[in-house]
Amino acid sequence: MTRATLKDVAAHAGVSHQTVSNVLNGHPSIRPATRERVLSSISALDYHPNQAAKALREARVTTLCFASFGHDPDTLSDPYRNLIQAALTAEANAHGYSLATAFLDHGAASLEDLRQRYLQRVIGGAVIIGTQLRAAQWERITSWGLNVVLLDHLLPAPAHTVSADYRGGMAALVAHHVSRGRRDLALVLPTGDYGSTAMMRRDAFFEAAQACGVRARHVDGDWTYAAGERAVRELHAAGDLPDALLGGNDRMATGALSAAHRLGLSVPGDLAVSGFDDFDFVQYLHPTLTTVRVPHAEMAREAMRHLIALTGGEAPQAPAPYPVSLIVRDSA
Amino acid sequence: MTRATLKDVAAHAGVSHQTVSNVLNGHPSIRPATRERVLSSISALDYHPNQAAKALREARVTTLCFASFGHDPDTLSDPYRNLIQAALTAEANAHGYSLATAFLDHGAASLEDLRQRYLQRVIGGAVIIGTQLRAAQWERITSWGLNVVLLDHLLPAPAHTVSADYRGGMAALVAHHVSRGRRDLALVLPTGDYGSTAMMRRDAFFEAAQACGVRARHVDGDWTYAAGERAVRELHAAGDLPDALLGGNDRMATGALSAAHRLGLSVPGDLAVSGFDDFDFVQYLHPTLTTVRVPHAEMAREAMRHLIALTGGEAPQAPAPYPVSLIVRDSA
DNA sequence: ATGAAAGCGCTAACAT
DNA sequence: ATGTTAGCGCTTTCAT
Fold first, then answer.
1. Using 50, 70 and 90 to split pLDDT, how confident is the model at B65?
2. Residue B3 to residue A71, Cβ atoms within 8 A
3. Which nucleotides of strand C lie within 7 A of protein CB?
4. Cβ separation of B281 and A77 shorter than 8 Å?
5. What does the pLDDT read at residue B1?
6. How many Å apart are CA B119 and CA A1, to the nearest integer?
7. Among A232, A252, A228, which Cα is nearest to A242's?
8. Which intervals hold domain HTH lacI-type (chains A, B) (predicted)?
C-alpha cells in the first residue's frame, strides 16, 4: 500500500501542494473554504506527513537520546532507569520528539556509537545519567557539540545539569540516625569522579556527622546489591561494625539488609540501615526501608524540557536542585 | 559548524558525488586508486552520511520501537522491562537500527500515538510485550500493517511471537512444591486475555496439580508487589491459607514474602513462596527466593532479529519456546 | 569505471 | 490568497 503524499492531497483538493503545506503548518492567509477542502482531502486520503522528508528539508532532527550506564543485569535492572526513561519518553513525545536509548560503558566503543548517531543526524541531543560518567568521557562528549543535559551530575556552566538537593537530604538523614542514638555511621558510595553527586553526598555526610560529633566512615560500593552486601560483611568480618549503615542508593541498602539477615544481625536493633531513592519495592523489604525520596521522574521531565529548549536554540535557565524528603520506615 | 556532504567530499576528491556514494555503499567497479582518494577525502572532511536523506531516498525507516505497558511506578520499574530494553537496543543497534520506546495503556490515545508514528514513517516496526495486551488492541494494531513481534504472548500465525516454555516451567515448579510435601497450592496471576501466557500458565498449573492429586487454586493479581501482598493477606484473613503460594512473577512473590513477614508466618515453614523470572534482587530477599528462570534477554534478542527480518521483507521461521529452569533457593 | 540527470516528500522564497 | 521554482542529501537509472 503506497501512502498519500502532499501532491496527492493537492490534486484531490484541486490546489497546489504548497497550499496543503500551508494548511498543515497553520500558516495565515488561507481562505476558510480552501482550508476546509484541503482538510477533508487529507482525511479522505488518510494523509500523514512523512517525517523523514520534513526532517531533511528542515535540517532538524526529531529524535533525542537517553543514555545511561550499565551492561550487567544488576545495574540494568535498577528501577531508577525505568522511571527516568518513562518520564523522558512521555515528555519527549509530548513535544513531538522520539526518544532513542543508548547504553554506555567505560570503553571507547559505546561513546563512539553515540557520536556516530549524532554526526549522522540520527539524534539531536541527549539526556545522560551522570552517576557513572567519568570526567574524560564528559570532555569527549562536550567536544562534539552535541546538546547534552546531565541528570544527577553537578558541573559548572556551560554544562547543563539537573540535580536534587542531595546535600540537604544527606544532612537530614544523618540527623535522623543521630536522633535515634546512632554514633557510628558508615556510608556506602562509589568513590566518584569530578562532578559526581556521590562526591557531593560524601562530603555532606562527613560534614553533617562531624557537626553532630559522631564517627563517620566511607566504604566503597558501586551501586549494586552485591556492593551493599559486601560492605556489611566486610565491616562485620573486621569486627568494626557501625551502628548505622547508609546505603548510597536503595539497591545497596537492600544488599546490606540481606547481609544483616545472613549474619544474624537484627535490623534496626544491631544495625540501622537506610537507603536513598525510595523505590517502590523498598516498602516490601523486611524490615521496610527508611530512605530519602528523590523525585527522579520530575527531574527527568525537567531535563527533557531543558534539552528540547537547547535543541531549539534557546538558552534555558539552570533549574534549582530538586527538594528531597526523608521517609522514615522500620529499618532505621 | 556546517557538516560535509557527499558533494563536498566529491569536490575534495575530484570525482562526482555519485562515485563517492558508490564507494560508501561498497559498489563494485571502482578503481582502487579512486576508492583510496575518496576514502581519504571522507576522513579529511570528517564526513558522515545524513541518515534522514538516506531514509527519504531509500523509503525505509531506520527506527524500530519497543512498546510495553505500565504507567504506574510499580509496573514501570519492573526489572523485566529493563533487561528486555537493553537486549533489544543492543540487537537493534548492531543491525543499524535505532530503538524508540512507547508506553502503552488500555486507553485509545496510546495506541493512536503508536499508529501516528507508524504512518509518519517514524517507526518501521515494533516489539511489544504482550503480557497486558488485550485482544481488541492486538486486532487494531495488526489492522494497520505495522510489523510487530510479540514477546510473551502466544497467538497463532500470522502473528509473530517469541515465548518461553512456561508450561514446562510451571510443571517443574508444581512438582517441586509437591516433592517438598506441599498439598495446597495457590497461584497468583492475572486472569489474562486471549493469547496471554498467563492463561497458559494457569492451565498448566491446574493440570500439573491435578496430576499430582493436590489442591490448586487461582488468585487474581496484576503483576505488582501490592497484588502479591494482598493475595497472602486475603487468603490468611479467610482462614484458608495454602501451604504454597506461587507468584506469577518475582514481584508478586516479593509482595507475598512481605505479607508473610507482617503476618508472622514463617517461610517456608508455614508457607512456601516461589516466583517466576529470576531477577537479580530475589537473591537478596529474606529468605532468598525459589523461582523459575526465564531467559528474557535472549528472547528479546530473538524478537528483535525476527522484527528486523520482517522489516527487510523476509518471512522468518517461528522460534521454538525458550527453555526455562527451576532455581531452588530458600523460600520453597 | 565514472558522470549526469532525476526525484524521494517536504518547506522556504519568491512571484502572482 | 495561492501557485511556481528550487533544493535539503542522498540513491537509482541511464549515459558515457
1. very high
2. no
3. 1-5, 7-13
4. yes
5. 53
6. 12
7. A232
8. 4-58
Using left for φ > 0, alpha for ψ between -120 and 50, and beta otherwise, residue B44 falls in alpha
By C-alpha distance, which of A22, A26, A28 is closest to A10? A22
Chain segment A142-184, per-residue pLDDT in tens:
999 999 999 998 888 889 999 999 999 999 999 999 999 999 9
B52 touches strand C (CB under 7 A): no
As a whole number of angstroms, the distance between CA B158 and CA B306 comes to 13
Please tell me chain A's helix, strand, coil percentages from 3-state DSSP, rounded to the nearest 5.
50, 15, 35
Contact between B126 and B114 (Cβ < 8 Å): yes
Helices (H), chain B: 6-13, 17-24, 32-44, 51-58, 73-76, 79-94, 108-119, 135-144, 166-179, 197-212, 225-237, 250-262, 296-311
Nucleotides of D strand lying within 7 Å of any protein CB atom: 1-5, 7-13
Instruction: Give the pLDDT band of residue A116 (cuts 50, 70, 90).
Output: very high
**Residue A1: band (very low, low, confident or very high) from pLDDT cuts 50, 70, 90:** low
Residues B183-221 have pLDDT tens digits of 999 999 998 777 888 999 999 999 999 999 999 999 999
CB B11 within 8 A of CB B20: no
Interface test with B, best of A54, A111, A121, A223 (most B CBs within 10 A): A121
Which phi and psi angles does A60 have, rounded to 5°?
Answer: -130, 155
The neighbour count for residue B33, using CB atoms within 10 Å, is 8
Report the 10 Å Cβ neighbour count for A107.
9
pLDDT of residue B303: 97
Residue B253 backbone phi and psi in degrees, to 5: -65, -40
Is A73's Cβ below 8 Å from some Cβ in B? yes
**Contact: A117, B98; criterion CB under 8 Å:** yes
Determine the longest span between alpha carbons in chain A, in angstroms. Answer: 87
Across A58-62, A92-96, B209-213, the highest mean pLDDT is recorded for B209-213
- pTM value is 0.92
pLDDT for A271 equals 98
Establish whether the CB of A58 is closer than 7 Å to any nucleic acid atom in strand C: yes
Cβ separation of A120 and B48 shorter than 8 Å? yes
